[in-house]
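Re: that backbone. Tokens:
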């Protein structure tokens, strides 16, 4: 398998209403959506939609939400042999409320994701030992991530960590030592360096400082300002692609799925980040998380347009 994703699988239950309810209040909403979520699953789906061979390693419950997540991942072409259905826990969910202005509140219940451990990387040894790129995030326990990273590195693969959601106490040194590339957004950069980059110059400085912790590359995602990378081929600000953004949910996940696809194809770092930026930009033009992930044809068209 070319790309392995070790991480979270959730189902997002999103309720849309004119406004968000106050504590103790019941309101009538306008509609709801139930769909695949979790940073791991979103990144796996995004890479698979681009045509990469992708295996998802993680845990769901044996409940209806687990079946839904499995079905949706399978529809993207993600290989699920190592997605364990654990009868002892519930599938992770995110309960999301969205108001008419797009403001949201989110409650995540990790469920089975919380039980992911080093036994899961041992179970998936056949995949991890041969993966060219491993994608990690912070929605499963750190020790499990470190074990998965060690396997991929031993096989000569590259490990990309999305330090999201932002780690309150920074990143453990053992985790930084276990990965090659990190990809924080502005908030996550603040959690790692102490200040949020407000512009590309600050993004470049943050990327340089993070790379200096012993990484091959650090990529700082700057939303509508593009991304900054400090890597083996130098420091670069990748300009944002001009798109009409309607929903920024999972832009970062589509960025990371795209980055894995490009790195697996052997693109140099600067080109890989440009490819990933195109994926992130296109993701903002559609609603939803994994559902917003672009196809290779869409990305190539945007790259050609410049
Ligand atoms: P996250 O979803 O993790 O907060 P970002 O919002 O930084 O991540 O988005 C990831 C990447 O997607 C950015 O680095 C950028 O390349 C692209 N992107 C996001 N929003 C826009 C936008 N409005 N216009 C163009 N590109 C965007």
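Recovered sequence:
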């Amino acid at each position: 398998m070319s790309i392995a994703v070790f991480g979270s699988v959730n189902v997002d239950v999103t309720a849309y209403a004119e406004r968000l309810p106050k504590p103790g209040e019941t309101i009538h909403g306008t509609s709801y959506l139930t769909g695949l979520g979790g940073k791991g699953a979103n990144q796996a789906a995004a890479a698979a939609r681009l045509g990469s061979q992708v295996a998802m390693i993680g845990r769901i419950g044996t409940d209806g939400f687990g079946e839904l997540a499995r079905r949706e991942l399978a529809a993207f072409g993600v290989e699920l042999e190592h997605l364990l259905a654990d009868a002892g826990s519930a599938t992770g969910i995110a309960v999301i409320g969205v108001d008419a202005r797009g403001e949201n509140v989110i409650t995540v219940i990790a469920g089975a994701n919380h039980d992911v451990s080093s036994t899961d990387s041992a179970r998936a040894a056949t995949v991890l030992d041969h993966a060219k790129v491993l994608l990690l995030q912070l929605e499963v326990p750190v020790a499990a991530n470190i074990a998965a990273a060690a396997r991929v590195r031993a096989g000569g693969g590259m490990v990309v960590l999305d330090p999201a959601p932002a780690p309150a106490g920074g990143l453990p040194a053992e985790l930084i030592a276990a990965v090659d590339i990190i990809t924080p957004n502005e908030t996550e950069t603040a959690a790692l360096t102490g200040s949020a980059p407000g512009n590309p110059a600050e993004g470049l400085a943050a990327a340089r400082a993070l790379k200096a912790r012993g990484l091959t590359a650090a990529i700082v995602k700057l939303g509508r300002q593009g991304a900054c990378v400090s890597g083996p081929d130098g420091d670069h600000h990748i300009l944002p692609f001009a798109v009409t953004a309607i929903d920024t949910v999972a832009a970062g996940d589509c960025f990371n799925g795209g980055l894995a696809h490009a790195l697996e194809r052997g693109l140099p770092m600067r080109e890989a980040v440009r490819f990933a930026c195109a994926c992130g930009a296109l993701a903002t033009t559609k609603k939803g998380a994994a559902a917003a992930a672009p196809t290779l044809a869409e990305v190539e068209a945007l790259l050609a347009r410049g």
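Residues 185, 221-224, 226-227, 240-241, 243, 245, 248, 251-252, 255, 277, 280-281, 284 surround adenosine-5'-diphosphate (CB under 6 Å). Residues 71 and 173 are 37 Å apart (CA to CA).
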